[in-house]
Design goal:
Strand order of the largest sheet: 7-6-5-4-3-2-1-8
Number of strands: 8
Order of helices and strands: HEHEHEHEHEHEHEHEH
Largest sheet: 8 strands, parallel
Helix content: 40-55%
Strand content: 15-25%
Distance between the termini: 27 Å
Bound molecules: pyridoxal-5'-phosphate
């Protein structure tokens, strides 16, 4: 079995899971965007995914993502790059060059740095506010009243566009409970910012629960590409 066959078989299983979760929730699978998280995997896998029709690609480290994006662009293959990881302020300039959607803006300081970096782009940069579902800042994410303040701050810039929210479910929580809470937070943000309709939630292990609770974007690594050799 070639690597392309392996990814194609994994992709078929993931698409089935998305379809089943949507059917159970009475949702249209077209409402759910599959983002392939290719961290630790080479640009050649990104090209394989693109060939199989997956054009939304996620990465979590600028050091890996920037050269990968350049390699894929050099092949003339258009993909949308999602920066899903924790972003350091000194990487904003680099990320703003290739990213189409930055998922994890979780502080006013980071938002301001990204807004400054995005002024050099020819169009605004789409961003999501990362929220902490359990209030523990360890995995990143804004908490409580900070979420609305941060959403307002992002929406108030010329160079960023607030598109929604993102979260990682806390390990110790039942996934359904975590994503239900996220759905509530997402609705609150959307009430103030109607253009912020994205809910980025769900990874390989919990995408089904995320879709049941309204995820519009799922971020899938392992289930598409296999177990990563490193822990990240
Ligand atoms: C790695 C990663 C994913 C994908 O995780 P899998 O369990 O491999 O599907 C999703 N979101 C973020 C933020 C990640 O860092």
């Amino acid at each position: 079995m070639t690597r392309t066959d392996e990814i194609a078989a994994n992709l078929a299983r993931v698409r089935e899971r998305i379809a089943a979760a949507c059917a159970a929730a009475g949702r249209d699978p077209a409402e759910v965007t599959l983002i392939a998280v290719t961290k630790t995997y080479p640009a050649s896998d990104v090209l394989r995914l693109a060939e199989l029709g997956v054009r939304d690609i996620g990465e979590n480290r600028d050091q890996d993502a920037a050269p990968k994006a350049a390699e894929v662009a050099a092949q003339g293959v258009p993909v949308r790059w999602h920066f899903v990881g924790r972003l350091q302020r000194n990487k904003c300039r680099s990320v703003a060059r290739y990213a189409d959607l930055v998922h994890a803006v979780d502080s006013i300081r980071l938002g301001a740095a990204l807004a400054e970096a995005a002024r050099h782009r020819d169009r605004p940069l789409d961003v999501l506010v990362q929220v902490s579902i359990d209030g523990d800042p360890a995995r990143g994410g804004a908490t409580g009243a900070e979420v609305a303040r941060l959403a307002d701050a992002v929406a108030g810039t010329d160079s960023l566009r607030l598109r929604g929210v993102m979260a990682v479910a806390p390990m110790s929580w039942p996934a359904a409970e975590a994503f239900e809470r996220l759905a509530g937070i997402a609705a609150t943000v959307r009430a103030d910012h109607p253009e912020a309709g994205i809910v980025s939630a769900g990874m390989s292990a919990d995408m089904d629960a995320a879709i049941a609770h309204g995820a519009t974007h799922v971020r899938i690594g392992t289930a598409l590409l296999g177990m990563r050799a490193t822990l990240r």
